[in-house]
Amino acid sequence: MTTPLKVALLGCGTVGSDVLRLLEDQSGDLAARIGRPVEVAGVAVRRPDRHPDVPAALLTTDAEALVTRPDVDLVVEVIGGIEPARSLLMAAFEAGKSVVSANKALLADDGSALHAAAAKAGVDLYYEAAVAGAIPLLRPLRESLAGDQLRRVVGIVNGTTNYILSRMAETGHGFTEALAEATELGYAEADPTADVDGFDAAAKAAILASLAFHTEVTAADVYREGISAVTATDVARAAEIGCTVKLLAICERVTADDGDAASDSVAVRVHPAMIPTTHPLAAVGGAFNAVFVEAEAAGQLMFYGQGAGGRPTASAVLGDLVAVARNRVAGVAGPGVTTYAGLPARPIAETPTRYHVSLDVADKPGVLATVAQEFARHGVSIATVRQDGHGDAATLVIVTHSAPDAALSATVAALREMPAVRGVTSILRVEGLS
Amino acid sequence: MTTPLKVALLGCGTVGSDVLRLLEDQSGDLAARIGRPVEVAGVAVRRPDRHPDVPAALLTTDAEALVTRPDVDLVVEVIGGIEPARSLLMAAFEAGKSVVSANKALLADDGSALHAAAAKAGVDLYYEAAVAGAIPLLRPLRESLAGDQLRRVVGIVNGTTNYILSRMAETGHGFTEALAEATELGYAEADPTADVDGFDAAAKAAILASLAFHTEVTAADVYREGISAVTATDVARAAEIGCTVKLLAICERVTADDGDAASDSVAVRVHPAMIPTTHPLAAVGGAFNAVFVEAEAAGQLMFYGQGAGGRPTASAVLGDLVAVARNRVAGVAGPGVTTYAGLPARPIAETPTRYHVSLDVADKPGVLATVAQEFARHGVSIATVRQDGHGDAATLVIVTHSAPDAALSATVAALREMPAVRGVTSILRVEGLS
Question: Which residue, among B96, B150, B105, B145, has the nearest Cα to B123 in the 3D structure?
Answer without folding.
Answer: B96
